[in-house]
Every structure is written in structure tokens, then in C-alpha cells.
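FAQ: What does the model actually see?

It sees only this:
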Amino acid sequence: MKKEKLFSTINSGKYKGKKIELPQGLITRSTKSILKSSLFDTLQFEIIDKNFVEVFAGSGSVGLEAISKGAKRAYFIERDKNSFAVLKQNCHQIDKNSCELYFGDSFKIYFNIIKKIQTTKTKTYFYFDPPFNIRENMQNIYDKVFNLIQNTPSTITQKIIIEHISKMKIPNHVGEFRLIKTKKFGKSSLSYLIPIKSSTD
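And it is asked to produce this:
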């Protein structure tokens, strides 16, 4: 029996109300609507004309919301074949010209995107929603994510956002970045980091 497709929607911006298909099964987790709403209430208009990188993309719902809110370009990385097919379809239906998709391991592809962004010198938001307990071999997922952040150039970074399990405490400093706030949503939380040299909270 064929499973019924699942959908979420764009919450705000120029594509408000457009449907986003969600991948089947537990390979990827869709970001809760209330959590996504809080994220973009926090970012507001500062995201306009900036880049947005969704490191563990799944359906691409966060990056596509960023495009709808005025982000210049969104980069997506997803390694699951079925999830990537859904991601590709979502980007094509919402705004394919503003999306750049990468199929494969986020930990291997991430710095290819970094190099590309460095050539444009556009300030960028990095969104990490690591699949902490869904996929195999993910026991050290947060350590690996912190390693990526430590090696992210602060010169191109506007903000780094980590979606994580609430029982996980994010360090006050990760590389060249400092934690400015954490907001809890039950079992999940959002933590925001900015370059240490930045004067904007």
C-alpha cells in the first residue's frame, strides 16, 4: 500500500502558504512549525539578501522559508537519496533559481560551500539540525558539528543556529563564535551564535 504524502507549508514571506513535501519515514526529521516560526521571528528582516546554508537539509523547509523571507541564496546538503529527491522537488516548485543543492555527506561537502561563499563575500547564516539519534554512526554528531563551526570563517558568517536536543548544553564559545541565546521548545532547542568580534546581538 502506497503511503500518503506528508506536507508542511511556508509560514511567511513571498511564498507563504506554498506546500513543502516531507520525506517519508524517520530518515529525516521535519523542523517543528513553532520552532521554525520562532527562528524567523528572531531573524526578521536581517536575512534579506544574505545566504542561508541548511547543513542537514531533509525537506529543505528551513532554507526555503529563508528564501521566502528574502534571503539571496540557499544552499542545501542532504545525503539520503529519497530525502534528496523530495528536497530537489521542493526547491524546484518554490524557487529553483535561488537554491543550490548538494547530495552527499554534510561533513565532506560543507567546506566546498564555504569556499564558494568566500568568493562572493556575502554574509551567511548557517543552520545545523544534526540527525542526532536517527541515523547510524551518529553518536558523536555534536562533536563533529562543533568541529565544522570551529573551522567556519567568521568573516562570512552573520549567525550560526543549532537545533539540538534540549538536554544538550551548547558551549559559550565555539571557535571564533560566542553563544548569545538558547530558546527551548520542549525536547528541542535553538541556540544562536555570532562571531566574537561582532557587536550585534
